[in-house]
């Protein structure tokens, strides 16, 4: 049996050094956008999480910046070990299982959320019809621009205004790129037969949904409690993603109409555009502004919190404390 050199760390020591602390992890607003992987094996070693990629030159290893990724999309042919998946969850990285090219989301992990503050605020607002209507209206107004919708406009009228706005946007971009008449269609069963603009738009929207999903989970909100959309586990994701499509994914799709590989081009161009758009901090700020419009907010840091206890009279009280002295001994 060999004895390790006194200055050489053991496997246990390397694992402890590699394990992140809360202070080491970046805020969601500072994270990178997303990473799409397919036909790889992802596993954890003593150094970090690595992807084993089979290339013409043989097997190659690529280490992944797990602590700086907000979202990882796992495409077909991907396998991942339990240890690697645990590391993603510990870093707060959302892992989505998708179809080819990141199209359609089949499953997603839920990283640990350190606070339920925003989830409780979301649930209270969602369950009150008056407040839910106010948030839905504010979402439409964010798309139109402040002051565009007259006061007292109903949700049905706002839906009609939104439909006309999107149609006009499609028509303008089609004219600019000399495409001719364009009609938005999405048929997962006939994915490869779509025209390049629809194909690019669907691929870019899937990436956008993944990033929005990651930001929602990082705040501790529920992706299912939507205000405009309803009846789907991703309803709130669709709500928030719709705020940015007209500025991000729709113009991108038309600009790539002549691409020979529109799906791959969409992911690369979308990622580059996010650096300029600074989407993650904007998503966080928009969600906070929608759920608490009259409150000043800061981007949440990863601060460790104990679980509180609920009391119907006083509200939340500190957990991790023996309350026997305040309740008295049982009779």
Oligomer state equals single chain
Instruction: Spell the H/E element sequence.
Output: HEEEEEEHEEHHHHHHHHH
Helix content: 40-55%
Estimate the strand proportion: 5-15%
Count of individual beta strands: 8
Residue windows where pLDDT falls under 50 for at least 5 positions = 14-31, 299-305
Question: What is the CA-atom radius of gyration, in angstroms?
Answer: 23 Å
Q: Just name the CATH architecture of the largest domain.
A: Up-down Bundle
CATH superfamily of the largest domain: CRISPR-associated endonuclease Cas1, C-terminal domain
Distance between the termini: 62 Å
The CATH topology of the largest domain is what?
Answer: Four Helix Bundle (Hemerythrin (Met), subunit A)
Shape: flat
Global mean pLDDT? 78
Structural class: alpha/beta
Main CATH class of the largest domain: Mainly Alpha
Spatial ordering of strands, largest sheet = 1-5-7-8
Helix segment count?
A: 11
């Amino acid at each position: 049996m060999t004895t390790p050199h006194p200055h050489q760390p053991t496997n246990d020591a390397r694992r402890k050094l590699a394990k992140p602390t809360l202070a080491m992890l970046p805020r969601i607003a500072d994270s990178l956008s997303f990473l799409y992987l397919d036909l790889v094996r992802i596993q954890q070693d003593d150094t970090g999480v690595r992807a084993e990629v089979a290339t013409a030159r043989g097997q190659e290893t690529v280490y992944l910046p797990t602590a700086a990724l907000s979202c990882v999309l796992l495409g077909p042919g991907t396998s991942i070990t339990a240890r690697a998946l645990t590391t993603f969850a510990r870093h707060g990285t959302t892992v989505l299982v998708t179809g080819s090219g990141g199209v359609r989301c089949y499953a997603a992990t839920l990283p640990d959320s350190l606070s339920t503050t925003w989830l409780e605020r979301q649930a209270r607002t969602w369950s009150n019809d008056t407040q839910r209507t106010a948030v839905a209206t504010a979402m439409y107004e964010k798309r139109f621009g402040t002051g565009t919708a007259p006061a007292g406009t109903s949700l049905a009228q706002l839906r009609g205004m939104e439909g006309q706005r999107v149609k006009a946007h499609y028509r303008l971009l089609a004219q600019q790129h000399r495409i001719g008449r364009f009609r938005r269609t999405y048929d997962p069963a006939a994915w490869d037969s779509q025209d390049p603009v629809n194909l690019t738009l669907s691929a870019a929207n899937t990436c956008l949904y993944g990033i929005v999903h990651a930001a929602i989970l990082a705040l501790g909100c529920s992706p299912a409690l939507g205000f405009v959309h309803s009846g789907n586990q991703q309803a709130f994701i669709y709500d928030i993603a719709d705020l940015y499509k007209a500025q991000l994914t729709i113009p991108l799709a038309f600009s790539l109409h002549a691409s020979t590989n529109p799906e791959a081009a969409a992911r690369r161009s979308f990622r580059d555009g996010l650096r300029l758009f600074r989407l993650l901090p904007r998503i966080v700020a928009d969600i906070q502004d929608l759920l608490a419009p009259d409150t000043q907010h800061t981007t949440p840091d990863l601060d460790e919190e104990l679980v509180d206890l609920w009391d119907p009279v006083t509200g939340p009280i500190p957990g991790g404390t023996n309350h026997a002295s305040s309740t008295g001994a049982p009779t």
